[in-house]
Design brief:
Blueprint (H helix, E strand, L loop, with lengths): L2 H13 L6 H39 L5 H51 L1
């Protein structure tokens, strides 16, 4: 086996001009729909969970104490729970917005790909 030839082909492939296929375009459009929704959902979910956890710590007296800590902890906990509950509906709205924006292009490319075969 000639490893020099394999290595030379590998290097040449890195510098050759890549053609964009319809499948790659379709994947890119799908990524444009899903990526903003995923980034928002993970970020919002993590922040909401941290708020919920901080509220739990305050209400249990792990950090802070007294009636003020308990009250503030309950308020933070409820806000965290609300954030966690609305996260998925917001995700669906962002996905729907992306589908409305890129849906026609995705459907056109998918139809072109399936008609070719």
């Amino acid at each position: 086996m000639n490893t020099d030839k394999i290595y030379a082909e590998y290097i040449a492939n890195k510098y050759s001009k890549k053609e964009t296929t319809k499948v790659k375009q379709l994947k890119k459009l799908d990524s444009k729909v899903r990526t903003p929704a995923n980034i928002f959902t993970y970020t919002f979910g993590i922040v909401s969970t941290l708020i919920l956890g901080t509220g739990m710590y305050l209400s249990m007296g792990v950090i802070g104490s007294g009636v003020l800590g308990l009250t503030f902890g309950i308020i933070l906990g409820v806000l965290g729970i609300i954030g966690c509950c609305v996260n998925f509906p917001i995700y669906k709205k962002i996905i729907e917005k992306g589908k409305n924006k890129y849906g026609s292009d995705i459907m056109r490319l998918a139809k072109e790909i399936t008609d070719e075969e």
